[in-house]
Amino acid sequence: MAKEYDYLLKVLLVGDSDVGKQEILSGLDDGSTESPFCSGSGTAHKTTTILLDGKRVKLQIWDTSGQGRFCTIIRSYSRGAQGIILVYDITNKWSFDGLNRWLKEVEEHAPGVPKVLVGNRLHLAFKRQVAAKQAELYASRNKMACFEISPLCDFNIRESFCELARMALHRNGMERIWRTNKVLSLQELCCRSICRRTNVYTIDSLPLPPSVKSYLRSYALTSSQCLNTVLNNSASIAKNLKCKTATSYHLKHNVRNGCVIS
């Protein structure tokens, strides 16, 4: 029988308790015949399939409890893991400060495994206790990718798993899967959606604050200028190509411009 996937990866979710690891799992499509289960040992398992550069990558995602008495589970499951996702809550400073303990545990039992730092509950950014720049600096210092996600809004969850899968496949010799996924910010996504449904002249009539209207106007002008530049460049290239073709025809057949029979 033909396989339902091209690559199989085992991913481990680690982090303190109550950072929302179960929320992340529940937002993913279940690609297995069995439903996600929770065993008495403190682990939850889910299988999902993502599409990465035309290849089907099946992920076996294991969620370990954040309690200290389950550290032995991490030691046993991290040995066969191809990717690690470290989860913290952006509204809980303690969960971010505890990442060093989890990182030390992972590096001890799974050295060199690709890791992605995930800040959960972005929809509660008004209660933020961990700055985005602080998380990015921590991830860069420990050679990790960094994402802020929201299971409630389904934002950046699949992108974070795609990035981890790409890093894991590249580590295992799949150099051709090396295109990074450009993840748009939530602000840019909103601006793109608004500008698609309106134009620069009707932005002032929107019930939005003046600062947001100013940003939308500049975004719309920049986007339209970029599009016009591309269209103008394409037109000029086509025109030059047509002129060059006509000139080469005249030179080849020794025909003067005034004697061309239309």
UniProtKB/TrEMBL annotation:
A GO CC term assigned to this protein in UniProt: endosome
Name of the gene this protein is made from: 1277354
A Pfam family recorded for this sequence: SOCS_box
Native source organism of the sequence: Anopheles gambiae (African malaria mosquito)
UniProt-listed GO biological process terms: exocytosis; intracellular signal transduction
Family affiliation: Belongs to the small GTPase superfamily. Rab family.
Protein name, per record: AGAP000841-PA
Cofactor or coenzyme needed: Mg(2+)
SUPFAM superfamilies the record matches: P-loop containing nucleoside triphosphate hydrolases (SSF52540), SOCS box-like (SSF158235)
Keywords: GTP-binding, Lipoprotein, Magnesium, Metal-binding, Nucleotide-binding, Palmitate, Prenylation
InterPro entries reported in the protein's UniProt record: P-loop_NTPase (IPR027417), Small_GTP-bd (IPR005225), Small_GTPase (IPR001806), Small_GTPase_Rab (IPR050305), SOCS_box (IPR001496), SOCS_box-like_dom_sf (IPR036036)
Domain SOCS box span(s) in chain numbering: 173-222
Gene Ontology molecular function terms on file: GTP binding; GTPase activity; metal ion binding
